[in-house]
Amino acid sequence: MTPGKSDRFPYLSALRGIAALWVVMAHVALMPNPRFVLSWWPETLVRSGVMGVNLFFLVSAFSLCLTMPKHDNEQRPYLGFMLRRFFRIAPLFYAVVIFSYWWNPAGLPYNLKTILANLTFIFNFIPGRGYQTSIIFAGWTIGVEMAFYLVFPFIYAKTKSVTLAIRALVIALVVATVFRSVIGDLVADPGIYIRQSIFDLAPMFMFGIIAFHVVQIAGEWTHRRAIGAVLLASVPLQFYVIVTGRVPFGPAIYWQGPMFFCLLVGLYLFPIKPLVNAATRWLGDISYSVYLVHGPIIAALFPLFGWLRHSGLSELQAYALALAISLLCIVPVATLTFYAWENWTNEWGKRFASRRAGKKRVEIDGVKVERPAVPVAA
């Protein structure tokens, strides 16, 4: 979505912005060597910013469900879907790949094999640095997204209700459990491979599909705001249970799904201003640019971070200043990349995809006409 246009789903934009900010908070603290060490509560909040990636995945699946009805009007809906997804992701990703060849502070391996794996978006399936990790900082999540796009239209076709979406979640959890049990014999570093694999992270997307179907019926609920308030109030409690290792069973990562489900549905029902506002919505609009450019910018600021930490400030004060300076650099650069490249290529790609997918024609009184557009659900 272009900033400035009417935002029909402000809670989604806000969640993207919150996720992007949370990831940046984590990386400002964790990337420097030595990393920032804070007291327990800020440390827990900041370190948990890596959860922002799973929030991205959940929101992504929800958003994809919103856009699928428009493909019902296309002669080649799968082609239209994949082309739109490609032009949404690839142009900026490719630009950062080129830039990272010149500025590669993490020393990720650039060679013909890793470059081809990244350009073709198959790298999530290949273990090793530069492959599954990507050759750009934190780019592994893009491999997960692109892998999910390949199968999403088929999943969407089979999950047209809350019950069916829950069934898909159960299947995804079973697949993830089997994957975790067998992958150790197949790769050298199963811990990293599991954490960054679509097979392990697919349940996060399923929670987004469940949330989509719940929102479709939530508009008919009485006491919507009260229910939304209860869901939002449960989020801090769920967060505490997760970060303190008190989940009742299973890997803690999958309990992030219910937590973010409650956050999304809660904000739909009760969009509180501290979370859904102009700032978070704006940050959400440019969140993809923020995500791809923040790593190199933070790395470039390491010398300044070191100076702050030796200037007599407390560790928390130094971190807060480092975060503020990082955002002051990241947001303008992300805004520039959004307007100058990301949004332009995305809009062009939509038009190209529409032409290639073609519109279905229906016969009315013996005359073939283009099928009317299907409205997108709120």
Automatic annotation (TrEMBL):
A GO term for molecular function: acyltransferase activity, transferring groups other than amino-acyl groups
Q: Which residues cross the membrane?
A: 12-32, 44-66, 86-103, 135-157, 164-183, 198-215, 227-247, 253-270, 282-306, 318-341
> InterPro entries, alphabetically?
Acyl_transf_3_dom, Acyltransferase_3
Q: Which Pfam families match?
A: Acyl_transf_3
Q: Which GO terms describe its biological process?
A: polysaccharide biosynthetic process
Identify the keywords attached in UniProt to this record, alphabetized: Membrane, Transmembrane, Transmembrane helix
**Record-annotated Acyltransferase domain positions:** 10-333
Establish whether keyword Transmembrane helix is in the entry: yes
- Quote the cellular component terms of the Gene Ontology held in the record: membrane
Name of the protein in its database record:
Peptidoglycan/LPS O-acetylase OafA/YrhL
What is the native source organism of this protein?
Mesorhizobium sangaii
Q: What lineage is on file?
A: Bacteria, Pseudomonadati, Pseudomonadota, Alphaproteobacteria, Hyphomicrobiales
